[in-house]
Write a structure and sequence with these properties.
12 helices, alpha+beta, Arc Repressor Mutant, subunit A
């Protein structure tokens, strides 16, 4: 019993005997416990120091045990001390976990400040991609403009999702059209959850400031956060609209017996949510001409509204449907070209290289 309070086993044996007999002489204690004289002497001294045993003035001296309430008070005090120790231990454990997470996060997240630094790292990231580049592009673009034609290497699988507003930036549609290649897929979404550029499923970069007022971004290395961002891209990709663009070699005659290549592009831009003004600027024609062409498509589909036109275009398969999403590219051992971690943030997806 008393050993839980720090007493020795001999002290515990002596106290239990004295407590049950109320009082006992030194000889009675020795006879009942079988302990040596030295053990009894040290045990009585220890119990007296703890306030658990006192002695009388009788001859021979008798030893009297304190009441069980004294031991109970000692147990209560020890429980309080243990609770306080547990609280301190919990605090230390929290600080330790925080320090561990901070150390781990230092290897997962890297922050890049300034537009020029972002631009430098974005270009480096694109040029060192080895198998796959994926991107979600939202306006405003502050690092590398799509119209600049900054391109990854050949034979890189390129997938990009543009928010509708990004396509309304002058020159963006032309850059996408001129850079279309067999290894690229471009889709459009009315509202993207975040900007993101990722290569080889090893690094991803997103803006740190939600409003892009400050050119600061964060680079994310392999981690649960990176896996979540890649899964988010695939989810948005499945719900985005494929963008059909007229290649420079296509003619405006009938295609597949239904629509001309130019009409396919017009319809694709309508489904992407572009305004008549943005479409007119892309084709370099008037808004009235765009509206006349849309009306002609509605007559061809025998519908009265643009919503019905979109439905009929899907029903008659006037536009090529989205191709199946490619299997995720296996994550290489390290990002980039082996030159160390890349600190890359925020970019617009440049279109793939023209064939």
């Amino acid at each position: 019993m008393l050993t839980a309070l720090g007493a020795t086993e001999t002290e515990d044996r002596v106290y239990c005997f004295v407590a049950t007999t109320v009082s006992a002489t030194w000889a009675e204690i020795r006879s009942a416990t079988g302990l040596s004289a030295g053990d009894i002497r040290s045990s009585l001294a220890g119990l007296h120091q703890r306030g658990l045993v006192s002695q009388t003035n009788d001859d021979p001296v008798r030893y009297v045990a304190s009441s069980p309430g004294t031991v109970e008070a000692m147990i209560s005090n020890r429980l309080r001390e243990l609770r306080e120790a547990q609280e301190v231990l919990d605090l230390l454990a929290d600080k330790r976990r925080a320090a561990q997470l901070s150390g781990e996060a230092a290897g997962v997240f890297e922050v890049v400040h300034g537009q020029q630094a972002l631009r430098h790292h974005v270009l480096h990231l694109l040029h060192t991609a080895r198998s796959e580049v994926i991107n979600m592009v939202k306006p405003p673009v502050i690092a590398v403009q799509t119209s600049e034609g900054a391109l990854p290497g050949d034979a890189i699988r390129n997938r990009a999702i543009f928010e509708t507003g990004a396509l309304e930036v002058p020159g963006t549609l032309d850059a996408i059209r001129d850079g279309m290649a067999s290894a690229s897929d471009v889709r459009v979404h009315t509202k993207l959850p975040v900007k993101m550029l990722a290569i080889d499923r090893c690094v991803a970069l997103i803006p740190l400031a939600p409003d892009d007022a400050v050119p600061v971004g964060v680079l994310i290395h392999p981690s649960a956060m990176l896996d979540a961002l890649l899964a988010l891209f695939e989810h948005v990709w499945d719900s985005a609209v494929a963008l059909h663009m007229v290649d420079s070699g296509e003619v405006s005659g009938a295609a597949d017996g239904a629509l001309s290549a130019e009409d396919k592009q017009l319809l694709s831009l309508l489904l992407a949510g572009l305004t008549d003004e943005a479409i007119a600027a892309h084709f370099r024609i008037s808004v009235r001409t765009v509206q006349r062409k849309v009306h002609a498509l509605m007559e061809m589909a025998s519908v009265r509204t643009r919503m019905q036109l979109a439905w009929e275009a899907a029903r008659q398969d006037w536009l090529p449907g989205p191709t199946a999403s490619p299997s995720p590219v296996p994550r290489p051992r390290s990002p980039g070209s082996g030159a160390g971690p890349l600190r890359v943030v925020d970019s617009a997806w440049p279109p793939p290289r023209r064939r």
